[in-house]
Write a structure and sequence with these properties.
Length: 254
């Protein structure tokens, strides 16, 4: 099978004239369907820029990003919102939930926007919320539930449309250790039960140890990558620590 995502010779420059920063420098990699890929690196390594380019939030200076056989760098401005809505799911550090909608309405919002039948929306919302452990709070509003529950609501919202790729940008950054663990277990469940393809950008080694593969960036280039394979998570965690120590990144754990 073809990889679901192919990033080819990606470059991104900021600035103009003599003051130019090269945020991404000839970055190439691919992601298989159902993979849980982590992207790590010290501050300023280019990991957030990479996520923004793949998610069509930012435009690369050069190279290609091919998702499901389509080069997203060539999608017109008119089409880009619809492409995001049907192909990408997002889980951010900030929950980005609408306080005027219930949890259930927040989860099903993208389906409602796409004019999916109300009964089908309700059925999908119930199924996903039960699996992610928030089936009993669908009638509550975001301000009435905990941070961990809000983040799982954001995960359900990202998954509801069966996107080709889920982008998670520092999703545990605003959570305490207990809520972080619940969220990471939720991402693993999404990956294993729904075969969701997940791209996780994080500086946190504990979070990265839940991935099946981790890509490390340094100065806008791919430094190395490691695959978990059959290793237990503790062994994989220690491997990540060793590489981050070389990169000079943070080695904090939860």
């Amino acid at each position: 099978m073809e990889p679901i995502l192919k990033v080819q010779h990606l470059e991104k420059y900021y600035g103009k004239g003599s003051v130019i920063t090269k945020a991404l420098d000839d970055v190439s990699f691919q992601v298989e369907e159902g993979e849980f890929l982590g992207i790590m690196g010290a501050s300023g390594s280019g990991k957030s820029t990479l996520l923004n380019c793949v998610s069509t939030i930012d435009t690369p200076t050069g190279g290609k990003i091919i998702l499901n056989g389509r080069d997203v760098t060539r999608i017109s401005d008119r089409e880009i919102a619809k492409f995001r809505r049907t192909n990408l799911g997002f889980v951010f550090q900030e929950f980005n939930l609408l306080d005027t909608l219930t949890v259930g309405e927040n989860i099903g919002l993208s389906l409602a926007i796409n004019h999916i039948d109300k009964d089908k929306v309700a059925h999908r919302v119930r199924n996903i919320s039960e699996i992610l452990g928030i089936g009993d709070i669908l009638d509550k509003f975001p301000y009435e539930i905990s941070g961990g529950q809000r983040q799982r609501c954001a995960c359900a919202r990202a998954l509801i449309n069966s996107p080709s790729l889920i982008m998670a940008d520092e999703p545990t950054g605003a959570l305490d250790s207990h809520s972080s663990m619940l969220l990471l277990d939720t991402l693993v469940k999404m990956n294993e039960r729904y075969r969701a393809t997940i791209l996780l950008v994080t500086h946190d080694i504990f979070s990265a140890s839940f991935c099946s593969r981790v890509l490390f960036l340094r100065d806008g280039k791919i430094f190395t990558e490691i695959v978990r394979g059959n290793k237990d998570r503790k062994t994989f965690y220690n491997e990540i620590i060793d590489i981050m120590a070389v990169l000079g990144g943070e080695t904090n754990a939860i």
